[in-house]
Amino acid sequence: MEPHNLVIIGSGPAALTAAIYGARANLSPLVITGKDLGGAVGQTDRVENYPGFPEGIGGFELAQSMQKQAERFGAEITMDEVAEVDLATSPFKVGAHGSEHEARSVIIATGRSPRRLGIPGESEFAGRGVSTCATCDGYFYRDQRVVVVGGGDTAVKEAVFLTKFASEVHVVHRRDRLRTERIVEDIAKSNEKIHFVCDTTVTEIMGDGGVNGVRLKNVKTGEGSTLETQGVFIFVGNVPNSELFKGQLELDEAGYIVTDERQMTSVEGVFAAGDVQERVAWQISTAVGSGARAAMQAEEYIAELEGRAHPERDA
Ligand code: NAP
User: Fold this and answer.
1) What is d(CA 139, CA 143) in angstroms, rounded to the nearest whole number?
2) Which residue CA neighbors atom 29 of ligand 1 most closely?
3) 130-158 pLDDT, tens per residue?
4) Fold of the domain spanning 4-113+238-305
5) Residue 16 Cα distances to 117, 218, 264, angstroms
6) Distance, CA 113 to ligand 1 centroid (Å)?
7) Which CATH architecture has domain 116-234?
């Protein structure tokens, strides 16, 4: 079978933008989505800061629109998870659970996954009271008290979202200052259902069958306490999904894929876009920009392989 011109791994804004650009450049890209369609945006309730949507837009709706747009131009989108890659020689090999592919160029847009706290009860009660997705699980906590862990944009925005269902939302943050956009902080602080528990860490998630409380520790006084709750939402940042590429591509000390100004990784013909290579601003708008750039550079790379002069570069 002929290798694909372009295989894109991921399905968030970077991957889908690369698919739109790749399809319009006649590269007939194959997109292998991974298990969470739409990436992190697909699990976001409202997106308020992406240009072009003055009233905001649902995260999943935005991801679906990008997917439709990519398909309209001929991108093939397959729901599968990539299990292994071989980037040592071209054509590159991409093995998903349900299929094997060869590719002349690859764009990696695998994003990031929620960081874990690593405390007792976190794994044990995952899916039984411990969640990293308010959009998916918030509904189950109608009229109940929930705890949100973290003090960044995600924690505070999701805390506000959870007030649609929960009777009380306690945001437990390890410092006394939030790491959020000012507007997000102001909205949360004016919400009567939200209570901030600062300078505090969660040391254990307790339960019996399901979650029934958390153990807390004030980091300044060392004082311990407990708080009854049925739901714990953990939003303490993210780690890049680059495990699959370790030893094959250059990664930085935090695990982000190293790219140059063309989105090229340490291997010619393999590009990375979006959060998996982003070290400064993890936004939809930045992911879209790097996805577009990666696809345009993949087009140029394929043109070079075929010995074709690229019109823009040679103009
Ligand atoms: P983040 O900005 O990295 O914040 C992570 C939060 O978790 C921080 O408050 C951090 O505390 C805390 N934390 C980290 N490790 C912890 C641990 N082991 N125990 C307790 N707390 C811990 O992550 P994020 O909120 O997911 O945001 C990621 C990026 O996406 C950011 O650039 C953000 O601006 C962006 N984002 C933007 C929007 C938007 O609407 N504009 C929405 C969501 C996300 P410290 O503050 O003490 O470090």
Assistant:
1) 10
2) 282
3) 999 898 899 999 999 999 999 999 999 99
4) FAD/NAD(P)-binding domain (3.50.50)
5) 31, 43, 18
6) 12
7) 3-Layer(bba) Sandwich (3.50)
